[in-house]
Structures are given as C-alpha cells and as structure tokens.
TrEMBL record:
Record protein name field: UvrABC system protein A
Pfam family, one: ABC_tran
Organism: Streptomyces racemochromogenes
Family per similarity comment: Belongs to the ABC transporter superfamily. UvrA family.
Gene3D superfamilies to which the protein is assigned, alphabetical: ABC transporter ATPase domain-like, ABC transporter ATPase like domain, P-loop containing nucleotide triphosphate hydrolases
Keyword Transferase found: no
UniProt superkingdom: Bacteria
Keyword Cell wall biogenesis/degradation assigned: no
ABC transporter domain: residues covered: 16-475, 491-784
InterPro entries in UniProt: ABC_transporter-like_ATP-bd, P-loop_NTPase
Location(s) in or outside the cell: Cytoplasm
Keyword terms: ATP-binding, Cytoplasm, DNA damage, DNA excision, DNA repair, DNA-binding, Excision nuclease, Nucleotide-binding, Repeat
Length: 795
C-alpha cells in the first residue's frame, strides 16, 4: 500500500529560488536621494531619465561598484594591495547582488602600441596560428609580436656544481617581431630643431622654446650648468662636439648645483618625456608644442605594419600576419574560415568565433591593426563586448552605458538582439539608455528624475513600457515624440568644396557642403562620416570642432575652472577688495593650508578603502579663513562657487557684481541646458551628457564661422534633444554654418541639408549615397537612412 498522501499541494519553492531581486535601499551616491528600487534578476532593465538625473550613480557607482568591491575583498591582502581600493557606496542596503561585468564607454588604452587586435586577444591567436603554420617557420609566437624586440647576448656564468664553482660560457637569443626602426609603433618621428630652440640666442638668453624649459628651471639648468656647453654662447656658434653633446649625448651622471642628476642630450630626453606618451593624454600646451615641433611619418622600414622583415616574410597561403591584421575584419573572418588544418582546429574555431563576433556586433569594418586610441566611445564599448559574446558564464549582471552611442538606427536593431541574447542565457542585463528603440524592448524600466543635478535623484517610475507611456514623467511624455520634417529649409549662403577626399575608406569623394545652414552628415557606423568632415574640412576655414574626445579633469577641476569662468571671477573679487587674484584660487595662495584646497583630508589605508573626511578648518569650503572675509556683491568666493549656473548668471549680470566676461560664459552654459550645475561641482561627478554639453559651451565662445559637432546627442535625453535643436537653430540664425555628424533621426529631420554616406561600412562604404533635403531623402527612401527616417516621421 502506498504511503503517499492525498494532498495535491505543489511542493514549496526551494529557498534558493527566492532570491530573484537585486534590492537597493537608501542609495545616496552623488545626487541620489535615498533611492530604493528592486531590480528583477535574469531580465533586461533599462534605466532612463534626463541627463544628470542619477542613472549612472545608481547603476555604476552603487550596484556595480559594490559588487566589484565585494569580489576584490575575496582576494588576499597582498593581492588587494595592488588593486585600486574603493570605498563602500553610500547606501543602506544592497542585497541579492551577483558578479557584475561593467561595459562602459571609457576610451581604450592610450598606449601607442595598443590595437584592436591586442585589446581583444585576436592578435595573440593569430600569432600562435602563424607560429604553427607560417612558412618559412621563424620561431615562437613572440617572433610575430610587434611588442617583443629581438635580443641576443653571450657571456660567462658562474654555477655551483658538485661542490665546486664552475664557469661556463652561455649564449641566448630571443626572436621578436618588433620593427627595430619604429619599435613597434608603425610611425617614426622627426623633430624640427628650429621649433626646439632659437639658434641665434644663448641658453641664458632663453634659446629653448620647449614648454617647461625656461631659464631658472631644472630642465634648463641641466643644460646651462652641465659644463658641456657655454651657456652664454649662441647655439649656432657651438662646435660640432658641443652640438653633439647638447643634442645627442648618451645619459651620464653628473653633479649640477650640488645635486646628482642624469644628463642626456636634448633629443633623446624629449623622445622619452614627450614623444613616448599618448598625444591625447598630454596637457593642451604640451600637445600644441608636439604637434608644432614633431612630424609623424609612416615607418619606411616596416611600412606602418610595426613588424620586422622576418615576421612579414612568414606566410600562410600567401598571406603574412601583417596582411591579415590590415584586412577588414569581415574579410579576415572569411579567410580564416577557409583554413582547414586539424592540428590547430581548436585555435581556428576560437579565432573564427572572435572574428564573427566583430561582424555580428557591427564592427566588421575595423581592422585588427587599428590603433585602440582612435576608436570612438561607442566603438570602444562594443570592442569590450566582444569577449562577453558566447561566454559560458551565466547568472552574472551585465551593465552597459548607452550601448547605442554612435550607432545608426539600422545597427541599433542588431544591438537590441545582442542584449536580449545575453538576457536569455540567464543573465541580468542593466542598461543606461535614452533611445526609445532600446527602452521599448525592456522587461523593466526605472525612470529617474524629475530633473537633473539637485532636481533629480529620485525614482519617478518603475514598471513596463506601457506604464511609462501613461506615467506622465518627462520620459513618458517624450517617449513617442517625433520631430517633424522641416517644411522650408534655409537657403545656403555658399558652399565648402571638398574634392577627392580619400582618408581611410573614402573613395575620392567630391561634395559641396552648404554654408549658412544646418547640415547633417549621416550614414551607418564606419561609413566614413568623421573621415570626410574631420579629415577634409580645412582648418583655415575658421572651423570650431567639438569632437568626442572625453573631458579630462581631477577632483579639483570644476565647470568654473574648465570653462575659464574662474579667471574673470577672481579678477572681479581682487579688484573689489584691492588684493591679488591668486588669493581666490583654491589651487594657489588662497587654499586652506590644512587640506591644500581640496576641501577634504584623505587618509590612505593601503589595501583598505581610503577615508575622505571633510576638512575641519575650512569645513569643506577649500579656502583659507582670511580669504572668506573678502566679498563681492555680498558673497564670498566659496558661496559663489556653490551657486547654480542660472543663479550665477543673474548675479554677475547686474548690480555690484556685474562682470561681463563671466556673464558671457554663464549665458553659454545656460544655453546648453546646464543651468542647474553648481560652479564648483567636481568634473568627476558629471555625467557623460553633461560633460559633452560643457565642452560644447566652452567651444561656443571660440571665434569661427563653421561649427563641426560630432554626435552632440550622445548622452542626451529625448527632452534634452529638443533644447539642442533650439541651440543649433540659434547658432545658424546668428550667421554660423553648422555641420553635425549624427545618427539621431530628430536631428536629421530638423536639418536643412543631409549628406548620407554608405551604402555600408568599411570598404562597403566611403561613397555619397544621397545629398538633399530631409523631405527628399524620405521621399526617395533609396538608402538605409532614408528608410529609417521615413519610419520615424511616419511618412
């Protein structure tokens, strides 16, 4: 007789299955105001809201940061000592976290030897492949690496053997693939000596024109007090030996002013200190000097491939590793698919998968030898995604920061498919995004706001797409917004002629870019838009270019210092109080002596997270108490830096504090929709969209008749795009010519003239496929852009 019960109740769920939410309670990072949300696991959740509403603070600075911190704590104290120590986010409860893989938009490595291939391990696999199948065989995978130099040596070594000391002669050699001429960089640099010094002057007369080499400084004293040259003699009068010592001397130790220093010729010293660094990471004045004094030319020995003659001589089916890396990745994937060699079958399978992932994610137009530093933010993010596609990991949390940045509407459909695939494998996918196409596929939406900065930081809506539409939030109201096609386009006042443009993948493009109107250059990612405009518009045409390079700034940098606003404010305070302007800088004489003007005192705790405590002497105001006694319009300098931009615009616009120079800059900041930022807010706390607009406001003050904007809608909410369109109209109406490289359909619809490149990416693009008004593009529907724009405007 069965012992089973007659009770048909389903079995109770397992306790382990009850943890299906990531719970966040009381989050206060940056501008978040005690935010509490429950994020469903194994679902796609999109975080939206106006730029600066707190999306990244919640997703990256709270959820992702705490997951990373907890994982780091599992390592030994020794290992943690080598890792960045981060403090616990300012949140009451974080429960249900899983391992987070964050894929952000940080630009990829600035190292000149970093390429798409080295960043994704595709190069490593190709090197192994050529070391096994290459003919002639030249050595191990190192022999195909442009990061490994060939070295050899010989000498006596002393060994202990059988209780006796024995001397033996040993020789060794390492065969590397690095080109000896350019050292794996692909380019060689030549210095224009006339830009380094004025040979009619002596060193003491200030002959050196290099930044940081002024008379009296240590860089200058190294040469003037070396004893190798006469500091009072004009450089053109040096003997051959003196000039060689001055320019090319090998490093040698010597005493200068009683201090042991290493003397080195001027040219090798500059090569190490300036030319070995990434140009984009340099300070502006040093970058300007390098661009003026240095000519970068393709290495004549390796023809830009970075590889030695031996590495280039070894081939598989007539293709060398240099040829393979130079191929468009979509073509390389086909070539690898045609290789059939059982001895390396697992390697070929993995390499095929990696290359197919490039094509699938819309980056098939790149080549593996493309320098990583030249990728846009959107391209860099998608390259980082490559290693996660096809990963066997499940039940992890993937966090994406606007993965559609830089993508044409046609490519966004493909990106949506990838996000859904990651979710369907059992992963939690969190996406910070503004595009309605991505919001529409979400399982769950968290809308932050209602405003930006201090006016944001609260959850306005949680739920599904239909609920968002009916919610009445800023995102909900603008979700179905569609810009109408411009009825009466402006008439051009002239044209900028571009003839025979052939940079990168452009195919001898001839085009007339109309002036005095709003021109939008569009096309799928990789079709040649940036190459056409940035590479062909002459600098002499009075061009103000606002590209996608990120704003760099420390925690001491803020909107007032970045825009140059602090300079007229300091002068106004100094004039009103009869003292020096330097007193009103927290980085100069006015700094609080206890915290050196940082406002906080940092205590380093080695592998534990450092502690930052508000400075007790200045109470976080950053200035010395005596400086705060000086006032302008009834406010001290710390109170001025705590003002929002909109309030400061009124303050410096009239009355006792009237300062026209400061007022002009503040007007531009209000114009780009940053009226809510405080003047002294650290740049490190600004969102990507806020930084983009801060940069735009700064460039708007430059003198120039043509403005070139590269994807200005990146990081902007649907509501902010309206403000941007108004700003572009005001620029054109004031007599400027505005050229916008853009994918956003609202900007295309608003244009006076559209130039569409394509039809595809890489070698499938590089041609003009349409020129005309938005209405003509929609009517023709002859291109991918035309089809998507027609669908957008409902034509």
């Amino acid at each position: 007789m069965s012992r089973g019960t007659t009770n048909d109740r389903p079995p109770a769920p397992h306790a382990a299955d009850s943890h299906d939410m990531i719970r966040v309670h009381g989050a206060r990072e940056n501008n978040l105001k005690d935010v509490s949300v429950e994020i469903p696991k194994r679902r796609l959740t999109v975080f939206t809201g106006v730029s600066g509403s707190g999306k990244s603070s919640l997703v990256f600075d709270t959820v992702a940061a705490e997951s990373q911190r907890l994982i780091n704590e599992t390592y030994s104290a020794f290992v943690q000592g080598f890792m960045p120590a981060t403090a616990r986010p300012d949140v009451d409860v974080l429960d249900g976290l899983t391992t987070v893989i964050a894929v952000d938009q940080q630009r990829m490595g600035g190292d000149p030897r970093s390429t798409v291939g080295t960043a994704t391990d595709a190069n490593a696999m190709l090197r192994i492949l050529f070391s096994r199948l290459g003919d002639p065989h030249i050595g191990s995978p190192k022999a195909y690496s442009f990061n490994v130099a060939s070295i050899s040596g010989a000498g006596a070594v002393t060994l202990e053997r059988g209780g006796q000391t024995v001397k033996e002669r040993r020789a060794f050699s390492v065969t590397g693939g690095m080109c000896p001429r350019c050292e794996g960089r692909g380019t060689v640099t030549d210095l224009d000596l006339g830009r380094l010094y004025d040979d009619t002057k002596s060193l003491n007369e200030g002959a050196l024109t290099i930044p940081g080499y002024k008379p009296g400084g240590w860089n200058h004293r190294l040469y003037s007090e070396s004893g190798l040259v006469d500091p009072d003699k004009p450089i053109r009068s040096y003997t051959k030996k003196q000039l060689a010592d001055f320019l090319h001397r090998e490093p040698v130790r010597m005493k200068i002013a009683g201090i042991n220093m290493t003397y080195e010729g001027l040219i090798p010293r500059l090569r190490k200190s300036m030319l070995a660094k990434d140009k984009e990471a340099m300070q502006p004045h040093i970058r300007e000097f390098v661009e003026r004094a240095v000519t970068f030319t393709t290495c004549p020995d390796c023809e830009g491939t970075r590889l030695s003659a031996g590495a280039r001589s070894s081939k598989i089916k007539g293709i060398s590793i240099a040829d393979a890396c130079a191929m468009q990745i979509s073509d390389l994937a086909k070539w690898v698919s045609g290789l059939d060699e059982p001895s390396v079958a697992p390697l070929l399978a993995t390499l095929r998968h990696t290359l197919d992932s490039f094509v699938e994610i819309g980056l098939g137009y790149l080549s593996l030898d493309r320098a990583a530093g030249t990728l846009s933010g959107g391209e860099a993010q998608r390259v980082k995604m490559i290693r996660h596609l096809g990963s066997a990991l499940t039940d992890v949390t993937y966090v994406f920061d606007e993965p559609t940045t830089g993508l044409h509407p046609h490519d966004i459909e493909r990106m949506n498919g990838l996000l859904l695939r990651l979710r369907d494998k059992g992963n939690t996918v969190l996406v910070v995004e503004h595009k309605p196409e991505v919001i529409a596929i979400a399982d769950h939406i968290v809308d932050l706001g209602p405003g930006a900065g201090a006016a944001g930081g609260t959850v306005c809506f949680e739920g599904g797409v239909e609920g968002l539409r009916a919610s009445g939030t800023v995102t909900g109201r603008h979700f179905d917004d569609r810009a109408a096609l411009k009825g009466a386009p402006r008439v051009p006042s002239g044209a900028l002629e571009i003839r025979g443009a052939s940079a990168h993948n452009l195919r001898g493009v001839d085009v007339d870019v109309p002036l005095g109107v709003l021109t939008v250059v569009t096309g799928v990612a990789g079709s040649g838009k940036s190459s056409l405009i940035h590479g062909s518009v002459p600098a002499s045409a009075g061009v103000v270019s606002v590209d996608q390079t990120p704003i760099r700034g420390s925690r001491r940098s803020n909107p007032a210092t970045y825009t140059g606003l602090l300079e007229p404010i300091r002068k106004a305070f100094a004039k009103a109080n009869g003292v020096k302007p330097a007193l009103f800088s927290a980085n100069s004489e006015g700094a609080c002596p206890t915290c050196n003007g940082a406002g906080v005192v940092y205590t380093d705790l080695a592998m534990m997270a450092g502690v930052a405590t508000t400075c007790e002497d200045c109470e976080g105001k950053r200035f010395d108490a005596s400086v705060l006694e000086y006032r302008l319009g009834g406010r001290d300098i710390s109170e001025v830096l705590e003002m929002p931009v909109a309030e400061a615009e009124e303050f410096f616009g009239a009355g006792e504090a009237r300062t026209p120079a400061a007022h002009r800059i503040l007007e531009r900041l209000v114009d780009v929709g940053l009226g809510y930022l405080t003047l002294g807010q650290p740049l490190t706390t600004l969102s990507g969209g806020e930084r983009q607009r801060l940069k735009l406001a700064t460039h708007m003050g430059e003198k120039g008749g043509i403005y070139v904007l590269d994807e200005p809608t990146a990081g902007l909410h649907l509501a902010d795009v309206e403000h941007l369109l108004g700003l572009l109209d005001r620029l054109v109406d004031s007599g400027k010519s505005v050229i916008v490289i853009e994918h956003h359909q609202a900007v295309m619809a608003h244009a006076d003239w559209i130039i569409d490149l394509g039809p595809g990416a890489g070698h499938d693009g590089g041609r003009i496929v349409f020129e005309g008004t938005p209405a003509e593009l929609v009517a023709a529907r002859s291109t991918l852009t035309g089809e998507h724009l027609a669908a957008y405007v409902g034509a």
